[in-house]
Design brief:
alpha+beta; Transl_init_fac_IF2/IF5_dom; single chain; protein biosynthesis; elongated; 2 domains; 4-stranded antiparallel β-sheet; 3-stranded antiparallel β-sheet
Length: 134
């Protein structure tokens, strides 16, 4: 009886523990400044980890920073010099508005467009939350 219980408990920990640790897996943004350009080389990897469309993220950054930008592969280039602290602040704002579940604080969410409204659906708790449009 004790061995069965311990085996089930171990199995439960393997299923639940990764979800509890995912909150700390928000990737850091890398910002490189060039003359009249700001380059984010790991933008595609961030979009993939956060389960977001790279062009949706790029549009948010462009609107928040008020500069045009281009996506080439995984690299996002902003056509204007912005300090790394400003870009990181925009990144944190994006995560707060469009990634983190307001119910359980999980980053395992997906963004879907239902009609004219974007809805964030949490894969951990199942909550659906409308988010503000871009």
């Amino acid at each position: 009886m004790d061995k069965e219980y311990l085996a089930l408990l171990e199995r439960a920990y393997t299923l639940v523990a990764p979800k509890a640790q995912r909150r700390t897996e928000i990737p850091k943004i890398q910002v490189e400044n060039m003359p009249r350009k700001t380059i984010i080389p790991n933008f595609g990897a961030i979009a993939k980890r956060l389960n977001r469309d790279i062009y949706f993220m790029a549009k948010f950054f462009q609107k928040e920073l008020a500069v045009p930008g281009t996506v080439e592969g995984d690299v996002f280039t902003l056509h204007g010099e912005k300090s790394p602290k400003v870009v990181e602040a925009v990144y944190e704002r994006f995560i707060r508005y469009y990634v983190v579940c307001p119910v359980c604080n999980s980053i395992d969410t997906e963004l879907k467009k239902e009609g004219r409204v974007f809805v964030m659906k949490c894969l951990a708790c199942g909550a659906s939350t409308p988010v503000k449009p871009l």
